[in-house]
Amino acid sequence: MWRNHVVVHFVEWLRQHNERVGKEKRDAEKTVITGLDVYSLHRSAEKVIAYLEKVDKKAAKMARNQYACFERFGDDTMTYAFSARYGLAKTCEDEAHKVVESLQLHVQDYLRKMKDGLEMESDLFSCVMNAYAVEGAEKYYRVMLDADATSWNVRDSYMVKTLERLVKWKSAQLNRQAKVVVWAHNSHLGDASFTEMGRRRHEHNVGELCRRHFGAANVFNIGFTTYHGKVTCSSDWGQAKIEMKSVNPGIANSYERFFHEVSEDLKHPNFMVIFKKITKTTEGKDGTNEKTPTAVGALPELPEGKTWKDIPLSSFPLERAIGVIYRPETERLSHYFETLLSEQFDAVIHVDKTSALLGLDDDARKPGEEEENLPELFPFGV
Prior knowledge:
globular; disordered C terminus
């Protein structure tokens, strides 16, 4: 996801941007990159202990003792998942929560102890968020082998809760509402309630939960589609080998095929479709806020007296989802699903021919670097 040259170029650009911002404005205005996911159990535990060692050695000892619960399962989080699922050992649920609880009780004490400075406040926030990450990861792995929507919902609910905390923290620093860009796969960002995920599998996701929590008017979900090209992926979960595969051309009755035909008519391979009316809020002459439409996309006509959720999914075209896993040989069954794209997303960017991400090295690890020394990027280091 991030161990590739595209991210390197973005981080280099962002560093230059933040340097300019730092000269003109206060440090709080700088853009930060932070994680939302649960795949960092052991690393997050280490970060919590390392911070507490600096500010509260007694609390650091307590955290170390609580997190020791995970040691009997080793570094492989799947061992914990199996043990929790089949009752082979006591879970670490209580231990992970006790660390969070302790931090919540003492966070004001730590704020009073530290010297003034945004960096030190950020370190404390990072410690607290890492403690939440351990707690979230424990819960996710505890239920991930259940044969229902629980593990997906636990993971995406955790990500949105993390996002809420991040927005609240950043807004407090800025003394105004912070703006956040969330980067994730379509399956996380498109509103699941308009797809098979929500209607048939009873799964919710980041896009749907953000609309609920922040309000649909304050969220703009953008999806990506492609007709063909190359993708860096794997064939199965847990597979160490990273592959570069050809993406099959979009099939009939798919959005991908339709957008490809549009791109041929336009004689332009890449374009953006905006479904949601975008409004710009400006202050009027009388001091009141005025909302002015700046762009309107063409939405399909809704039958009278119906909402889109009343319409069967089988009435809508197919969308393709390609994540870290891609199986072109079973693509129709494993990657396509029915969805109302214009409600799932507020806009879609179509790239007719996609190119594969290039890792920082051939197999996402440096020569001679052992597997256990890699960051936790379950199921592998794409």
